[in-house]
Amino acid sequence: MYRKILDILTILVTISILGIFGTGFFTYRYLKSDAFKDKVMEKIMGQVSGLMPDVLDNALPKTTGSPIPIKKPDIKF
Predict the structure, then answer these.
(1) CA dihedral defined by 8, 9, 11, 14, rounded to 10 degrees?
(2) CA 74 to each of CA 10, 54, 68, 69: distance values in angstroms, whole numbers, following the listed order
(3) Which residues are CB-neighbours of 36 under 8 A, at least 6 positions away?
(4) Is 30:36 a contact under the CB 8 Å cutoff?
(5) How far apart are CA 14 and CA 23, in angstroms?
(6) What's the pTM value of the predicted model, to 2 decimals?
(7) How many Å apart are CA 32 and CA 26, to the nearest integer?
(8) Distance separating alpha carbons of residues 36 and 41, to the nearest angstrom
(9) pLDDT by residue (tens digit) across 29-59?
């Protein structure tokens, strides 16, 4: 009786472990695939491109001033 229960548990544990390893393997392969990279880049670029015009309009000045004068140091040898 105990032998049958242990055999069933062994089979269930083996199936569970294979499922965990299989899921991890396919998840790794999906995360390293070009399709996943393209999908992520498309989402990021869609969000960033909507923000860029507002950021650039607020950050860039309309006009620039004169340059800051820089004194040359008096070095005598």
Answers:
(1) 180
(2) 86, 46, 19, 15
(3) 30
(4) yes
(5) 14
(6) 0.48
(7) 10
(8) 9
(9) 999 999 999 999 998 888 777 666 666 666 6
